[in-house]
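Hi W., the nicotinamide-adenine-dinucleotide complex you wanted:
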Amino acid sequence: MDNHQEPSFRQSVDIMFNRAVALMDLPPGLEEKIRVCNATYTVRFGVRLRGQIQTFTGYRSVHSEHMEPVKGGVRYAMGVNQDEVEALAALMTYKCALVETPFGGSKGGLRIDPREYEEYELEMITRRFAYELIKRDLINPSQNVPAPDMGTGEREMAWIADQFARMNTTDINSRACVTGKPLNAGGIQGRVEATGRGVQYALQEFFRYDEDKSQAGLTGSLDGKRIIVQGLGNVGYHAAQFLSTEDGVLITGIVERDGALVNESGMNVDAVRAHLAETGGVKGCSEGTYVADGALVLENDCDILIPAALEGVINMRNAANIKAPLIIEAANGPVTSGADEILRNRGCVIIPDMYANAGGVTVSYFEWVKNLSHIRFGRMQRRQEESRHLLLVEELQRIAGESGQKNKLSDDFVRKYLHGAGELELVRSGLDDTMRAAYQAMREVWHGRNDVTDLRVAAYLVSIGRVAASYRAKGL
Ligand code: NAD
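Structure:
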């Protein structure tokens, strides 16, 4: 296929949006209001580095302010451009609506290859970028709250939070200006793993329904399923690690920048991650056979494909060769709208990005609430819960002792029952509940309407319906 026929990322999002609104009965004009990006701010700033001033270009795009603050990650990559940032901001609007986090959609990006800079240089660049956005209220606890994305993590979020605090010395809620911070800077347990954990919960929920599995021609549980993952970064690593160590899947392919590893018996994800951290690539890792043309491994036979790197990797050129019957979009926009059509026609089930990778924004929501309430989740009730459980256990042991029963409560049961939930358990519980509820909302539409044949349209229908209701409530 000619590359020119491939729509851009933003066009792809619009095409998918249009497929959904064609099935809705929105008031005239509202469809256009929801689809368009409200504003995109482009900033060019100079930083003195290595004896000269270097100019950087960054963006912050606000897609929809039907709820505020607006929310969305900040990406550091050379491919960052206005089109991409706007597409990602739009996806954030739909994602937040789908998982019922009370935010509008936004996204930011800086055109930079972070691997080319020393840590202190990245700090100067990040602080200057943040300064430009903060002074325009494009970073603000009640208006616009960024988070990590490709090329950024806890470290960058801590710099942004500190920059905001320096510029707003009397704002008691300043920490809520950004999420994905390290724990000691106002972060929340479970945020780093959240997006990958959400991918795991999404697959677990999918596998609870025979009807859904059969659409993909799959049966049984996750145990033993062969999975290929692209991108062993934050999202891909955590998804692959949890699925392989907790659900018994086999990671048979890992695709990275420099090539791929394959091993039909499954790989130790931690070992590959360690090799990647040490050498910058997967080549030479003993966990699997190295394949130089990594993209070809996406076309290998497997049960589930997890693209967790970047957008557009499954496109009109390779879609026909993809064999996976189930794709879960851990990255944003990994399947172009052209490829989506080819795959759908072939019966491949795609769990769409706006749902699949919503774990990050969900736990970001918990972090924002924690920052605004200034108290760690579980702090007030954990020991009280434990002492009530202890009361029950002691009473049961006493009754058992009095009636001379030999079968006492097992030590294992007592230990687990007495363990009150701390922040990490509460975060995981809230995330699991969110992923289940959102999946159920999607599948109700997927199976409940004759004119809906795929999960992506179902997801758009649910989220656009919620955004539209929110606009209507505002009198628009
Ligand atoms: P990351 O930077 O931690 O990891 C990306 C990984 O992909 C890296 O290991 C990188 O080497 C690899 N990669 C880059 N180009 C590649 C290529 N051409 N082929 C194969 N591998 C390649 O980024 P991340 O935070 O894990 O984000 C990955 C995707 O998930 C992005 O689409 C992002 O928007 C999306 N996402 C991230 C979060 C989050 O919380 N971090 C939340 C929602 C969605």
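Residues 191-378+421-476 form a domain with the Rossmann fold fold (CATH 3.40.50.720).

W.
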